[in-house]
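Course exercise 7: structure representation. Students receive a sequence record and must write out the corresponding structure in C-alpha cell form. The form below is the worked example handed out in class, using non-specific serine/threonine protein kinase (569 residues). Read each field label carefully; the graders check that inputs and outputs are placed in the correct fields and that the protein name is recorded exactly as given.

STUDENT ID: A-19
EXERCISE PROTEIN: non-specific serine/threonine protein kinase
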Amino acid sequence: MMGRMGTEGAGFRLIAGRYRLEERIGRGGMGVVWRASDQVLGRQVAVKELLPDDALPDDDARRRRDRTFREARAVCQLRHPHIIVVHDVVEQDGRPYLVMELIDGGSLAERVARHGPVDAAEAARIGVALLSAVRTAHEAGVLHRDIKPANVLIESGTDRVVLTDFGIAQVEGATTLTETGSFVGSPEYTAPERMSGLRTGPESDLWSLGALLCTALSGESPFRRDSLGGILHAVVTDDIRPPAEAEPLLPVVLGLLERDPDRRLGAADAERMLRTYLETGRTPDAPGRSTTGAHGGGLIHRIGAGRTPKPPAPYSPTQLDLPYGTPQPPAPARTPGDAAPARSSRRAVLVAALLVAALAGAGVSAAALLLHRGGDGGGGTPGGTATTPATRTGTGGTAGSPTPTGTRPAPTPTPSADSHTAPSGYRTARDPAGFSLAVPEDFTRSPQGQRVFYLSPGQTFRLGVRVGGSQPGGPEAAMSRAAADGPSTNPGYHDGRVIRTTHDGHPAALWEFTWDGFSAAEGPRHTYDLCWEENGLLYDVWVSAPVGKVREAREYFDVAVGTFSVTGV
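STUDENT ANSWER:
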C-alpha cells in the first residue's frame, strides 16, 4: 500500500475517530481515494481525501475549505440510484474528507480501454441512467461540471451506472469549489460556453454527456486533438463529426452537441428519446428539429436539436463567449457571400482568446488543461539528454484510463519544502545533490551523472532533476535548444513546444513533448519539463510517463515542482 500513514502506521490511519483508511484505491490531482472501514456502522466505504493547495494564502485556503464543506453537504442531499452516495463530510488536521459508498467496479473509461467501445443499446442504457442522474442534480441546483467516462462507474455484477466525483461541482448561487477565474474540467468534454469562463449552466453538463456518448460508442471523444489549441478549435469552431458508430443515436448526440446552449437538447427530451430507442430500435427526432445524415467519412452536425423551436438565426458565440469582456473586433464590410468566412474569422478570434485565457489560467503549465492527452518522454534537460533512464529496460506500461478526479493545479512556487507536508502517498526526499522535493513513496533514487532520477517500480514513471550553471539566453533559450535537439535525443519526437513562464518569480520555461519511447516494448511516452534560473544556477525538473498515464505524470510533476526547495550540498 502506498498511502502516507502518519504516526498510526500503514493502513491504520483513523479519520474523525470513525473511518479507518485501509487501502488507497485511486489518486488524482484533487485528492486521494481510500478504501476504508466505518468503525461505527461496520461497513466498507470510500473516503476521498482532498489535497490542500499550499500556494493559497491562509484566508483563501480557509474560504476554500469552507466552500468544500458547504458544497459537499449539498451533494450529500442528492438521492438517486445513479449518483454516488455521499455519506458524510468530515475534517481531520484541517483537511476535508468525503465519505462515500464504495462501488465495486471500474469506470466507463477503463471498460472502453480494456474491452473496446460499447454498442448503441448499451450506450443508450448508460445515457438514460446519466441523464436521469443529472436531472436530479440540476433540480437540486448542483452542476457536475466534469462529466466524462472516467467519472462514471459501472458496478460489477449489477452493471449499475453511477455518476461520481462531484469534486468540482458548482452549487447554484454559490462560489465554485475551485478558485474564481481558474478553469476546471476536461477540455474534450467541456462545452464551448464554459471554455469562455462566462457561462456555466445545466446545459454544459448535457454537452459533456453528448461527448461521453461518442466516446462510449467509438473509443474517443470527437474533440480529441494533439494540442490544447486543437481541442479548443474543435470545440468552438470545427464541424462536429460524431463517429459513424453514433448513427443509431444521432438525433440525441447532435442535440446534446449543439453549440448554442439555449438550443441544446434538454435532459428530459434526451432521456425520452434514448428510452424510445431501447424500446423500438429507432431514435426519434428531437422536438422541433431534424438531423441530416452522413457526409464523407463522418456525420456532420448541421442542424442541432433543441427543446423549443426558435428563429433560425445563426449562432455566433463571440458575443456570449469571449472571456473576461474581451472586445469583439469590428465586423468588416462584406457581401452576403462573405458571411461564412466572416463567422469563421470571428470564431478564430475566439479560439485565440480562449487559448490565451487558458494559458494564463494554467500558470507555468498550459498542459494543465490536457487532462488525458500524451504520455511520457523523459524530461529533457538543457544542454543534455534528460530522457535516458537509469537503464533502458523499463516498461512503458499499458495505456491506463484517467483517474476519476480533476487535475492538480499548475505547478506553484513554495518557499521551502520544510514548510509543507508531503501529500498523501508522497515522501519528502532530501537529496544530497542540494535540493529537496516530494516524490511518490515507492519511487527510488538513481543518480546518473549530473542528473538525479527518482524512478517508479519498473521505471514506468521517471522523475528527473538536474542542477547546472546558467546558460546563454536563460531558461527559454536553453529549452529551445533542447527542443531543437529533440528528434536526436528522443526517438519519434513530436508535438514539442516551449512556453516562457516564471517560477517563484524567477525566469522559467516549460517544455512539453511526446515521443516513441526507447523501445517498442516501452511504447510512446510524454514529458513535462520545467526549467528555471535561480541564484545563478539553472534548475530543471521533469517527469516522463507512458502516453496513457499522463494524468498521474502531471500530478507527480506538479507536486515535484511545487515542493522543490534548494537546500545546499
